[in-house]
Fold these 3 entries.
Entry 1:
Amino acid sequence: MERKLGLTILVSVFLAALMVGEVYAQTVKAYMGTSPENNVKIVNFVKEKTGIQILQTFQSFGEIEAKVKSEAPNFNADLIVGCGSPLAFMAKKNKWAVLYDSPGWKGVTSEFIDSDKNWFNIANFSFVLVGNRDKLKEKGYTMPKSWNELTDPKWKDQIVMPSPLSSGTANMIRYAFLALHGEEQGWKFLAALDKNIHHYTRSGNAPTDLVGRGEFLLGITSDENVKKRIDEGYPLLWSIPEEGIGYDGTFALILSGTKMMDACKKTIDVLGTQPFSDMMAGIGYMTPRPAPNALYGKTTPKYIKLDLGWAAENRPKWNDVWKEKFRTEFK
Amino acid sequence: MAKAESYSVPESTFWERLKTFVNAELINIFAALLFLLLAIFLLYPILAVLIKSVKDPQGLTLGYYLKFFTKGYYFRSLQNTLLLGFINTIISLVVGFCLAYLTTRGPIILRKPLKIVSMMPLIAPPYLFAISLIILFGRNGILTKAFGFNWSIYGFTGVVIAQTLAFIPLAYLMIENTLMSLNPNLEESAYDLGASEGRIIRTITIPLLTPGILKAGLLVFVMTIAEFGNAAILGGRTPFLAPDTYTMIIGEADFEMGSVLSVILIIPCIIIFFLHNYLLTGKKFTTIGGKPVASEPRKMTLLVKVPFLVIGFAAVFAILISFGVVLMASFTKILGVKNEIVFSHILNFDSNRAIYNSIQVSLIAAFIGAIIGTLLAYVIVRGKFFGRNFIEMLSLSGFALPGTVIGIGYLLAFNTPPFKLTGGIMILALNCVFRFLAVGVEAGISKLHQINIEIEEASADLGANFMTTFYKIILPIMFPAFIAGFIYTFMTAIVSLSAVVFLVSPGFELAAVKIFDAAVYGEIGVASATTMKLVAIVIFCMMILNYLTKKTGFDISQKKGAI
């Protein structure tokens, strides 16, 4: 008898686990590529303003790109909130996005919204150089003034930067250096830099934490979390070397085939509002609607001249070159 | 003449004939259904990987393999992976044996504590050790700063240490289980005849343990080369096949090269699987031993005791420290930078949904897995159909298939209609079911071997139909195997990463993946806190299961040993 009782309880536990399902009113599934904590901020913002619950997984821009490419045209998500320009342009080209003329995005400049309403750039971000204040002092080093100083052998194994294969930040970093030096010289610079790189991280924000915790002296990293980490007490120094920095957008788009069109549209609408820009600027982003930036203040950083569309076209080629140069053979 | 007799049977209705047919052929029907399931959820995904690795838009090609063998990078990756596998297997077996010997023949007071600590890593994600090694030995790690170490934990050594600590419990459990079922009489006799303890271990204990040790070795080897969490967090630029496969699929959508790496990863596993089966044929002597005979434990001689204790304690100490620092990190603001006590990591509820999903997936997987495993064991032992050995091999192959490969296989096989399962919860559960099936099947097989088929025949002779016999006789006998399969699948599924990482989708995140992401990202506090929550939940679930199984009259610790 007792054996049967046990079995019954086991079965009921199992069934209970199955039954307890969705409790949210309206949910959409999204691939979100900002940092995990910023993803949560965006999710909470959307929930507060619209009541829509976004279910999301954190992935780097490059990973979202890989995922969307491999799933097309049967996407496992309703929308993307936060991917890089390569995927945004690819989605437009392949008609993976649902065209939507959002009332929430009226009056936004063309840099932030696609002319055909395929994608919406919720915020621009950049990369900066970060250093560990305490560790640099210990060694008697100062923050480099120019990107070229990073190739100095004294930094050997002391620099971390993200991998351009998985990270959108790194894709932006790579392209910025190619644009700065021209392709041929650019690759030479990257090769010289590679000699000092300890390893390439998966996500664009990881160097901020790794350098902040004192694991490495310098990092080339997304500017997204720098302000927050400094506020939290990480001994971080950050700077924009004299040559300037690159930038990329953080794109949102509705994936075709969604069954939650209404909720998707509402989500896109709210991402174009002033309060959303205010929140993103408070984190350190450059936003579609002007707002005081937490990291750069009122000054606009010096940007390297870029053509994101052209860079998106060249991304596959550059990935191949990068793999060939920095992964395939060992020094 | 015989013909005439069969015609004399009175005509029966269609339903009756169907019933008789089903009753007589039920075992074959089951076998066919189970084979179909295995074919869809185990063979087909593996085949999908194989096909992907030799296909390009123009047709069949070996180009990707050529690339693999001509580029130094991939070769280094293979070399590192195999080396990691062998080193790890050997260390885990040695340490596992020492621990198992201590907990079965060592000082009584040490047995229980040693056993508990040795099994602790089973309830945590394997890459807990990568996190703890960074906390301790990272460039800004606690011990690095305290003693001014100048060596780097990032690289091959770090990965070996982390993986070894993660897989010692596996080796320990399997060796301990064989050691427990070993009849001590042989050892006692040798002892009485004057053999030294060292000699007894060398000439009696270890040879008798061969099947257990081989199986443990196989499992540790496969798990080591497939579980990529530690290598991805600690590897730096040292290439290993499993994390490289992960990067290729997740980061670059390079399915072709990812598939090639998967196939290469399978080869050593399959070789070892067959080698292990070959070596084991005719060596099943340990199972005959039956229940251990209660006898007064001999005192271990000092010459054996001291080295065993040193090795055992070193491992146990390392495991405890690792759990300790991770626990500490979950309450520290920024470990090594701002060592203030905070509760914000623990109170960070972003991962709650993922933890909930993990429990749900593991429960579903455990339930389905235990049922399928028990049925498979039954048809394998009692069935008399063609291809029985093949089904047995197939269902036990889960032992030898690296998780990454099955994960990628599922992604390739079930991503397009009509078989579209990705983006849901069932793909996660089914993946766990078929990956961890082997344990339930094996437990079931060994249970069935213990009972004579005469009981079932008697039941049938007394007029019971197959279902009644199954329900009244077979099910109760197989229940312990069911529980063993259930618990193993549940525990392994809830902390495993290597396959499910490819299959999570928005809304169906799993805790193990979430922790891995946080750790890779560098958020040690959040990663540690989520790990601790997961560990607490696994312990809680185990306690409930333990209570339930005790209620049902089975000793769980014994069943866990059967794993």
Note: The mean pLDDT of chain A is 88.
Entry 2:
Amino acid sequence: MKKSFGQTLKEDFNTTALVMMPLCVGINIVGQFFTQSLRLPLWLNVIGTVIAGVLAGPWVGLTTGVLTNVVASFTIEGPTALAFALVNGVHGLAAGWLASQGWFRTWWKAAIAGFFGKLIDIPVGAPVVVLMFGGITTGASSAVTAFLMATGHNIWTSVISTSLVVDGADKVLSTLIAFFIIRALPKRTLYRFSRAALNVLGEKKEELEPALPA
Amino acid sequence: MRKSALAYVPGNSFIHRLNPLTVLTYALCITVLGIGIGQIWLLLLIFVFNMLLVVSAGVLRNFLYMFVRVTLPIAIPMFIIDSLFYPGSKTLLFTLGPVAVRYEGLMFASTVISRLLSILSAYFLMVLVIHPRDLMIALGERGVSPRIGYLVLSTLQLIPYIQQTAERILDAQRSRGLSLKGSLVKRFKSYLPLMAPVVMGSFSSLEIRAMALEVRGFNLPTKRVYIREVVDSPRDRALRRLVVIGALLLLALSIYLRIRP
């Protein structure tokens, strides 16, 4: 029997998922903290979002990404993150959808899934970067954008190609790290989510007969 | 590591006493205006108005501290890069040694910066005068699911804790000889022994947390009540209407000024 959309959402957003989402936001933030500690020229700030998407479906992933930036906005870091809330969110959406198509069972497919996430975040992110931040945000990638603009490229071309090349690698790595983290989770944890068993292990959830007639 | 403390500053000003939804409406209207308006002077006018609100809320010091730290690292390089390299710039204004400042680039940079200032200042004001808890209560009273409130608030509580854990793990791994220096590949390899304990540690508490919620009736379909009360006075409702109407008028004025022959 095909489940209604509302029913699916209800199963995706079960109590375990609701508890997991804040943890995944924490993973996003800590992921970025460690990149700063190690002075890596990366962000690695969607690891938690991707984990949430794979374990509990695209809508939980989307919510986790948006939640990350909404919560960051209320801290002394300031509300700049709010402008990029959807950019983080679409990575969860993409990961969740691709995971349901079986893309998170081998590592190289997961890497491609990460790049796909980057592709669909461009129409969401590039307008914000160009129109609100003039093509320049903090971070190493802005230097590349500046270089491209200085050599006579259109501002949109500069922002989009920087985004594809520099952030593309970043998102592929984030997704790979998320993939290996998920693989290391105990099965018992996976079974508590609505989609993890199918998405990660390829097991169809058995519909249990109700013990007592309703 | 910078501690992500809340930006909220307690106070008893006129703006502090408003319903959080009123302030949120204001910030959303300013966003629409910031995107819709093209005139630099109008955008700067909005920014000045926001600053007046910041001063009247008595949060100027915190505002300046956050605002300068967040916007300057974006605004200064952006102004330089856009005004010098903005593609398609033709009209030469003046030259400074080897670099040429052109009209189109300067206009683009100025527009973007005034847009950035006007929109961001409204949100900085919002996070300074609203405690997220009050915003969630106000939204909950408007029929937004208490689950969303739980998500935001528990995340806010969890973040300082998980940051502490991260710092402890960093210290622990370093005392075991993990190096934070070296080549890029080497540093990247150090990333996993840092990340894995954080993730595994937090996921191991998952089941206990979920069960704790369930036994407390988290999923009961009853209406929730809150210990804290957030008032929505008639004054708030009137102000919200005023803000929306004012924003629409300003937007209309901006469009009229642009298409006027």
Note: Chain B has two domains: 20-130+231-259, 138-215.
Entry 3:
Amino acid sequence: MKGFRAVFKRELYAFFASPVFYVVGTIFLVLSGYFFYTSTAYFSLVSFQAAQNPYAGREVNLNEMVVKPLLDDMSIVLLLIVPLLTMRLLAEEKKTGTIELLLTYPIRDLEVLMGKYLATLLVIIILLAGTAVNLILLSRFGSLEWGPVLSGYLGLLLMAAAFVSLGLFASALTQNQIIAAIVGFGALLMFWIIGWIGSVAGPAVTRVVDYLSMLEHLEPFSKGVIDTRDLMYYVNFSAFFIFLSLRYLDSQKIRG
Amino acid sequence: MIEVENLTKYYGFLPAVSDLTFSVGQGEVVGFLGPNGAGKTTTLKMLTCFLPPTSGTARVNGWDVSRDPLKVREQLGYLPENVPLYQEMTVERFLAFAAQAKGVGKGEIKSAVGRVVEDCGLEQVQKRIIGHLSKGYKQRVGLAQALLKDPPVLILDEPTIGLDPTQVVEIRDLIRTLGRERTIILSSHILPEVSQTCQRVIIINKGRIVAMDTVSNLTTQLQTSRKIHLIVDGPPEEVLKTLSGHQGVLEAVPQPGEGPGRFLVEMDKEKDIRPDLARTLVEKGWGLLELKSQELSLEEVFMQLVTEEEGTRT
């Protein structure tokens, strides 16, 4: 446990000491703010029209029209920025050789990986918390239902956790941070859009790709539904890629 | 303390280390010597459980590197080749991290770090960022992290490479001090370093041990002839002729240099002809300015062993 705590702390320090975090964080917050602004502006426009037409008013709902699109947009931004946060994790250590230091301390490899994984996740939680300001502001002026907002954020966080695990694995594969970022991004995008093949393939394939698709599993969360199937999908996804990273580190040692 | 038996490592089909067997006792300082690519670093990496051996075993303090890697690592302080460090951290913070990673209790981290900072002379730079330090200080930070939690065994891979001469002397002194109560294995391809700091040397070449003994034993064993250095004030050609013709002299070679003639004379190991030689020269009326016997240096021992090995193979 001590080893895990040491790695976790060091990794957080590395994030806050590096400009990458600040640049990525700023871009994430600016984009989220922009998405929030456009959704809210559109919402207020529709609201004005609805005020003149009582029948259209039934469709106007803050959660549906502002929160849900905002969460969807943020999930795409996360898809872009998480590989940039994870690319450093192992690739840099391999490049500079510090991995030799880390893996010859009396720490289990799993502790090293979990320390890195959870530290990155905490950084993403901090970024997501930054976007909550928008919604708190919104709830002062409109009637916002917090239930689906919170479940939506939970879904986003679980998805980000899955992203981090894949990014960590991509970072384990190479000493080049750019390659780690591109591999991570490409693989994530693949999991994102894998459902598209369902429309042209047979029903059996459709069921499989639907299960694998990240998008499919995010959907219920933003509607306020927390289904254990979706929960387990993300948890398993993370566990699988952390396991792969662990095995890969081992296999590399054997090859030398 | 350290027992290595038939340790072998293949990289693919390439043997990096084959069939290494040696042991290091408690409190010994052992030098691991060999040309670049001889398998020194690979062996040390296997001892620190960074690389698993292809076959064979190594035990540190009784713990097997394959079966109990975590226990082995608890016994070790390791300074990897090229001293990898987290460049963005301050010395203090990095050492606190290393202490925590090695399992030093929360309350003792500060005192543990303070101790190694003092031992390695890092007081003045502890608040500075590692990336901004000079190479010598980085090396000390590397040593400091290896010393944390006071491990009984230290493994140092090329501890003085890339340092300027004063820094080299400082680090060697530090290693000597550390070696008083610890078992140390250090690798090097710089021979004087090993002869100055180590009690015993293991010479390896192409992944195999070619010699293993104390420095003095190695030099006497391998000395097939004795060499003496002479400076004689006299007509060079005649002096050379006299020297070559003298009984017991195998070879006399004039040496370059200013002033009167310098000669390197190689003679039989068994018989000391120095008194005879001196008398002969003086009787001829030449001035014998210098007569100095030349010890076989570790360099020569090393070259002999390494080339011998190659000779037997081809």
Note: The mean pLDDT of chain A is 91.
